[in-house]
Amino acid sequence: MTVAWSIVAGFLVITLGMLVYLIVTERQQKRDVLEATDHAETQLARMSGEQSTLEQTMRRAENADVLDQSVFLNTLISRKGVSWTKMFADLESVLPHNVRLISIRPHADPKNNIQLEMVVGSQAVEPVIAMLQNLEKSPVFDNPTMPTALPPTQSEPLYRFRLSVNYAQKF
C-alpha cells in the first residue's frame, strides 16, 4: 500500500512540476504579448500624430489646389488602370457563341470596384441563362443581375437583356 501511495505521490509531484512550468511559461508569454502591444500602440500613436500633421499641411488654403488636383489625377489613374483588352478577354471566356454583346459601360465606385452594365442579345433565352451561369462560376465576375429583358421587335430581331455584374480584374 505504501508503494502504491508513493507512486501516486510521485506522479502528483511530477504533475505539479509540469503545471508550475506551464504557469511560468504562460506568464512570460503574456508579458511578451503586452510588451509587443504597448510597442504597437506607441507606434500607432506616433503615426497618427504624423498623419494629422500631414493632413493639416495638405488642408491649408495654399495647398488646396494641389490636393484637389492630386485627388483628381489619382481617380483618373485608377480608372485608366482597367484594361479593356483584359476585360473583353474575360467576357469572351463566359460569353456563349450565340450571345452578342451589344453595349457595355463600366462604372467605378469610390472604392474602385468596377461594375459592368451590359446589354446582350440572343435569338433565344437559353444562351443568356448559360451566360449568367458562366458569370456566376467565373472568379473575376460576381453577383450578376438581370434587371430588364426585352422581347424581339420588327426592328430588333434579338431578345435583349440588360445585365449588371461586378468585375474584379486580375492583374
Largest beta-sheet characterization: 4 strands, antiparallel
- Could you please say which CATH topology of the largest domain applies here? Alpha-Beta Plaits
Cα-based radius of gyration, to the nearest Å: 32 Å
Side by side, the strands of the main sheet go: 1-2-4-3
Q: Uncertain regions: pLDDT < 50 for 5+ in a row? A: none
Indicate the percent of residues in helices.
Answer: 55-70%
Q: How many strands?
A: 4
Derived structural class: alpha+beta
Known CATH architecture of the largest domain:
2-Layer Sandwich
Morphology call:
flat
CATH class assignment of the largest domain: Alpha Beta
| Helix segment tally | 4
Overall mean pLDDT stands at 88
The overall number of domains is: 2
Order of helices and strands: HHHEEHEE
Roughly what fraction of the amino acids lie in strands?
Answer: 15-25%
Give the terminus-to-terminus CA distance.
Answer: 76 Å
Question: What structural keywords apply?
Answer:
171 residues; flat; four-stranded antiparallel sheet
What does this structure look like?
With 171 residues, this protein is of the alpha+beta class. The chain folds into 2 domains: 58 residues; 86 residues, Alpha-Beta Plaits (2-Layer Sandwich). It has 4 helices and 4 strands. A 4-stranded antiparallel sheet has the order 1-2-4-3, covered by helices on one side. The longest helix is centred in the first third of the chain and has 57 residues. The mean pLDDT is 88.
